[in-house]
Amino acid sequence: MSHAAGAMPELIQAGMGAYISCSRLANATSRLGALGVVSSVGLRHIVPQQVRSGDQEAIEIAKTFPVARYVEELLSYAPGGKRHNRAIPMDVPDAVKGAFAKRLSASSAYVEVMRAKKGHRGMVGINVMWKCALTVLPSIYGALLAGVDAFLCGAGVPMELPEIIGKMRRGEDLEYDPLTGTGTHVHMQISEDGTADVLQSRPMPKLLPILSNFAFCKRLLETWNKRVEGSRPDAFVLENHAAGGHNAQPRDKVAFGELDQINAYFDKVKELGVPIYVAGAFLHGGTRKDLLYWQERGAYGIQVGSRFALSEESGLRDDLKTRALEAARDGTLRVVTDTRLSPTGFPFKFVPMEGTLGEQSVRDAQKRGCDLGYLLQSRMLTLPDGSEREVYICPAMPEHQYVALGGKLEDTEGRVCLCNALLATAGYSKPDRPALVTLGESAVESSERLTARQVVEDILTPERVAENEARLADPGT
Ligand SMILES: Cc1cc2nc3c(=O)[nH]c(=O)nc-3n(C[C@H](O)[C@H](O)[C@H](O)COP(=O)(O)O)c2cc1C
Asked: What structural domains and CATH numbers belong to the chain?
């Protein structure tokens, strides 16, 4: 299960959750020769909402999911369907009751990847956020069924990735207790779906872990090879701490310093012999100069996020995009790193924009609660009779609930519900939920509103893009 990066694009349009890297953006970039990436985060709520609103493309694609039960369940949210007015289910520990949410996550990932692939032959990837442990298996399953070309996994170390893909392609049920680094017990029953033949007919996807130090790269190589002999990443994405979204923990657990800089580990990782994409280390905001600089230093390519987040086709809510670009233009755009905000425990970058959760007063006014559940983790609770029961907890829950379920009070301090905040940022949450804009430090260079094509052309050159577009055109469209 190993591949050379030879056929890989030099540019990755980063997978940014939730729905910032939507299928419209990934479709626009992959047809021009970038690796266009969608994000798995929040799809179980986003795609059924699209179906509910009567989105014909989503509905038509949903009908092509290869297992009838999944189709029926997703389409039950369509106008006239039996769940049209019902809430979207959350993950629950009970295997039988929890299976519906998993199937919905899988069919949603399938629809999103198929949309990104529509009308061209370019490469499309999905970014599977490892810390959203409960949606890892269904997202991979749905994306594999859609024939995804690459998996990119960040916010955690995807130690089980090659094994998961191997098992799914053989149509086997899966169970990890826990998924490494997440503390969460995950499982998915697929053996009765009868999808092994379909999965084996799909191309073997490229595997790109997103990591931020040498030790994890080395350990991942050893672990993969031990678990699935011969498996190796097709490339590492090395993400510097200036990148948007979540960042890896600083080595001293307090603030980023010299040793956290990509320069401190880039050359050592290069010696491991795996091609490297660089992310979040762009002196010029993610431009051709940055690509050429890193290629000169031995990288295979770059993964660019913020510029695409601010481009026309991204899923970032239009009013927030306009305000961020205006702030970048007049030199007032600030990007702050907070180590408490995210329930994942990872540092998180945000823009302190008025009226959003980036403002302390807005955060203070929030009522705690968990009604989407992407960041839930398993906890074993000992009951009065001595028996054990699995429960799910998130440190952004109400404090009393979190403690009653076995969490520590100090873990709750400063946390916000990122699930609601990030869905609101893409326009997919309840109207009263404030947004939270995340961008990388390079965003200060992005003052102009560009189309995805303009960004790709700027990085790869218009001539290369024209060649790519002709080569990747779908003869059937
Ligand atoms: C809005 C936004 C959301 C992001 N969300 C994710 C995510 O869900 N998963 C992930 O692995 N990286 C995420 N990232 C990081 C990007 O994948 C990428 O590595 C980074 O943006 C590159 O640096 P740049 O922003 O300077 O271009 C996000 C970045 C941004 C700007």
From this structure: 7-317+448-469 (3.20.20)
